[in-house]
Structure formats: structure tokens, C-alpha cells
Amino acid sequence: MEKSIVLENLNFGYDKKILNNINLEITRGEFIGIVGPNGAGKSTLLKIIIGQLKPNSGRVKILENNGKDKSIGYLKQMNIEVGVSFPITPLEIVMLNLYNQMGLMKVPNKKIKNMALNALSMVNLQEKAYYNYNNMSGGEQQRVLIAKELVKNSNILIFDEPTAGIDQDSKELLFNILDHLNKKHNITIIIVTHELEFSKKYFNRILKLENGELKDYSEVNIW
Ligand SMILES: Nc1ncnc2c1ncn2[C@@H]1O[C@H](COP(=O)(O)OP(=O)(O)OP(=O)(O)O)[C@@H](O)[C@H]1O
Q1: What keywords are assigned to this protein (predicted)?
Q2: What is residue 116's three-state secondary structure?
């Protein structure tokens, strides 16, 4: 089995210790749910995996590249709350991310646009490509932000509570899209969630972070 992410003896603390000797191997194409009490360090762990925070000791290895860009698609907590103060369309949001990554003048506009439209179609939003993002529902906004990550051709997606604040139908749609991306495109997905009852059927593996330790929670939880 091809490894995707390996965490080795990770330790991290702000003023007090948060992660205590975490070891984890994630296989390519896994769909992982991470649960745990408030303040356990779930967001901190994700930030260490994406390289936003450096561990005090230990290593993070990202092994997937496969000719693709090595970037990880990451959605931080509470994106929906962060409004945009000017009118912008989903297409522009996704295109801007591509320009950011590829450099403004290097790629023809038409190609960028097609790549962005393709990413929006992967989250069922091709018909709303020209809407005003600010007038879209929380669930739709969340899907735009996922398209923004998908367009970078990442084969790892890491989302911190992506269903917080969106209605039940949007949650189902969001998870069905993620399920499709996981199964059909073999994208490795890690999701932090407080909504395990709803989401557990999608995960291959559930991990619980508590008291600095990360433990397999799949069996305990499912029955
Ligand atoms: N930048 C920071 N500086 C100092 N302490 C921090 C910082 N960020 C988080 N913490 C603390 O570290 C602990 C873990 O925070 P983290 O956000 O990782 O937890 P979490 O499990 O994601 O919580 P929640 O489920 O509430 O989102 C908390 O006690 C938090 O207050």
C-alpha cells in the first residue's frame, strides 16, 4: 500500500503540551475522520501536517507526489464566517488561487478559466460559477472553497470542521462530493469533525485525539 502521510514521534506544545509523541501512517486514498474534545489539539495537528506549524520534535512526511503538485488542499475552521467585503464570483475565487500558484502571466487565461470551471463542476457548482459569492449559502460557499483547493491538483485534502454551520442537506451533499473524490480520484482526505454520528459512514478510519494521544476510535465508535 502506498503511504501518503507519515507522522513520526510528533511532539508539540504552545505553553503547555498538546501533542505527545504522535505516530501515524496514512495510506493513499484513505478517508480519515479525526474527533476529540474541544481544545484537544485537532486543529493544531492539522496545522502541523500542512506545515503551518513546526513540531517541537518529530517528523511529518508527505509522500504523495506522483507527478502531481505536492501541495495539500487545506480548509481551515470557520471559513463561512469570514465574509468577503466586495463582490466576487466563485469562478474568480478559484482562478485567483491558480494564478497564485502558477504565476500571473505564465498560463493562458482560457486554460485557467477551464481548469477553474472543471474544479467547480467537481463540486456541482458549474452553474453558479458567475454568482455573487456573498449571496451563496454557507454550504455552497464551502463547496467553492473546496473547488479552490481542488484546482491545485492536490491529492491530499485536509478540512477542519467543514460542515460546521451548514444545513443537513448541504452536509450530505458535501460529504457525497468528498466521497466521490475519495473513491473515484483516490484523493486522501482527512477531516476533523464534531459530527461523527452523521459522518462516520464515510470514513475508512476514525481517530480520536485526547490528552495528547491519537488513538484508533473506529471500533469503539461504530458499535
Ligand atoms: N496560537 C496559539 N497559542 C497558544 N495556545 C493555542 C494557540 N492555538 C491553540 N491554542 C490552544 O491549544 C489547545 C488546542 O487547540 P486546538 O485549536 O488545536 O484544539 P481543537 O481540538 O481543534 O479544538 P476545537 O474542537 O475546539 O476546535 C487549546 O487549549 C487552545 O486554546
Answers
A1: ATP-binding, Nucleotide-binding
A2: helix
How does pLDDT run across 78-113, given as a tens digit for each residue? 655 456 778 899 999 999 888 777 665 666 688 889
Ligand 1: which residue has its CA nearest to atom 17? 43
ipTM of the complex: 0.97
Intervals of CATH 3.40.50.300 along the chain: 1-72+157-223
CA–centroid distance, 96 to ligand 1, in Å, is 30
Do 11 and 58 form a contact (C-beta atoms < 8 A)?
Answer: yes
CATH class of 1-72+157-223: alpha beta
Q: CB under 6 Å to ligand 1: residues?
A: 14, 18, 36, 38-44
The cell numbers describing 192, all together, are 476533523
Mutation to probe ligand 1, out of 42, 46, 54, 196 (largest number of atoms < 8 A from CB): 42
